[in-house]
Amino acid sequence: MFNTDISNLYIQETSFTYFHWSLIYQLKHDQLKLDDLEPSLVHTLIYNILPGGETIFHALCGKKEQMQKLMEICHTSTDIIFHLPLIPDFKGKTPIHKLIEQNDFRSINMVLRYLAFYEMDHHSRFFLKDVYFKFLEKELPNFLTYLNSVLKRTPTLAKIERGLLKHNYPQVFPSKIWYRDQEINQVLFHQNLLKVRTHVRLDFIDLPGIYHYQDPNFEKFIHQLAETKNFEYFTIPSIQSLIEFNYKTVQRYIIYVIIIPHFIFHFIFVCYMNLVYEYRKDNESYIAANIVLCIIMAVFASYFLYGELRQQLSQGVHYLQNVWNYIDLLTPISVITFLILQFLDEMNIDINQDFMRSIMALATFFMWLKIFYALRIFRNTGYMIRSIVEVIQDMGIFLLILFLTIIAFGDSFLRLSSGNEEGFIDNFFMSIVFTYRMILGDFETDNFGNVALPLAIIFWFMCTILDMIVMLNLLIAIISATYERVASNSEKAAYQEMAKLIYENQYLIPQFVKESYAPKNQYLIHVTNQQKVVGQNDHHIAHQIDRNSYQNYGSILNEKEGNKQTEILIKMTVGQYMLSMNQKGNGVFCDGNKLQKCQSGMIPLQSELRNEESDVIYHCYKCQFDYCDTCYNHYGPNSHQHQLVRTTYREIKKQTSYHNGWLCDARFFTPCENKEKFLTDEKEIIYHDEYCDFNLCSSCAINYYA
Description:
Structural class: alpha+beta
Radius of gyration: 35 Å
Distance between the termini: 61 Å
Protein name: Wd-40 repeat protein
GO biological process, one term: calcium ion import across plasma membrane
Subcellular location: Membrane
Oligomer: single chain
Transmembrane segments: 253-275, 287-306, 326-344, 356-375, 395-416, 423-440, 452-479
Largest sheet: 6 strands, antiparallel
Organism: Stylonychia lemnae (Ciliate)
């Protein structure tokens, strides 16, 4: 509170008045409804700060209908009327935190819908990031909308729209919200004005700070991403960028700390088992090699066991929830157990050889199995490993039912077998093996004996029908359905696998690297290269050259036309083009021959920029393409895929990228290498514009990438 003296009139300004406090109290205790108040009065109420730092939003927690009404008064279905402050009270709790305590996630989901409207750097982003993981855990539908809305393009960031991207430019990088253009230019662009520049889009990811390993909320957030069942989260650019930004660091340390040491360990282990172990007592050389290799394997096994203990301390009980951790743990334990047994054997202590060989077999099995872990970290192989894991998980209930039928038939055959003088099954365990071999086709009905032979034949017939035909074909159907589901979500699954690897292995990253790999408490910038090579997209037209395939091609064209034809050129073969046009003759002519050079004499490597203010320029505001006046008149307005607007350099130089001057982009035009020849090979790829019957050969399509 403070006092203001205006001409002897004392006015006391407070964060609230008794009148407003009374209204909020009545709303909280159902003595008044928001419908009874004018919107202007509600506007005043939402900015009143009550004792304890609470707002009207805090007071209405638990009043679902009233809270819904408050949000509707402050917002339309698409916009903000009154900016609603979502601030914490003196205990550090926002209204969302209070709703979580009340387990009212339905109201939270409703609020998230409206929070998606708010602009860049809104205060709610800072106060809610510690509960994002709760939204993921509860799979709130509107949290998807909220995350989609966090890509924000500020007016200053929108000015950076064109440049010569570096070969390995980062698709996401951290930056302060108040940045210098030079900082971003150094990260993304080559400073070469003589080459064609790429049209780019930069967006802030308005999730401040949470992208960093050292952020206190990062671990919970990435853990819920790793565990969520909703793949749609991994289609959101902000989530993809956050995962990719952190994955490259953890991947590097997985390779250096786990993969490379394990391959060395595995190589030594395999060489020892196959070249030394069986001959370890033959002569002094083998004895020495046995001792040295056992010591080396003991060191490696201890190293990996120590790493697993570190991970267990880092993750706590979550460590036991991941099947890969059991493989990682059993691998060094089995090797150490084998080495201990071997040491005892060398000390002339009697060791059961069956037990010894079993431990050796298990150690070998786990050593090979851990290689699957190495395959998880790469996109191509990780997708297949995930498919195998998903298939095994989906087979669980089916295998239980199959196992019960095997036991049922096996026990029935055992009862019949025990009635014969020479039984064909020895015990209960072998009865299960007998039935399992039967459903795989390994059976002999001649061994069924003489007791109740017709019943044995009936059981055999039922087993082959039910288990061999029905159950195994059902298993194939389950595997096919699972693989189809995983394949359709392969890109999303790859991002979730990366999130799991980040969560499981962040303990490998040294503390000093976590501190220095990226600045903290900033924003990520998402980089989109908006230039595409024609035809390189998910809708390639690639069919066999026949009339049936052309009908498929025609239906795709109709679908594209219904979607306003976002791709200008469509990839097809010469044969498909000739079928589509009912053309018979010499082949297809490449229209790249019409594009020769700049008609006013500008050359590709011209170093002197044009900067006459009166220069007439035909400019594309969508992709920043420029024609000089001569080239525009020569090539025509339809020679570029977007609209060209007549302007002058005096106007265009207001854009940052044109401060130093301009050049006509037609100077890069080069005639087709096929010259005047027609393309006659029916399998040769061309790129076709169906609207103006414009064609480019493959080499010209690459040349005119822009």
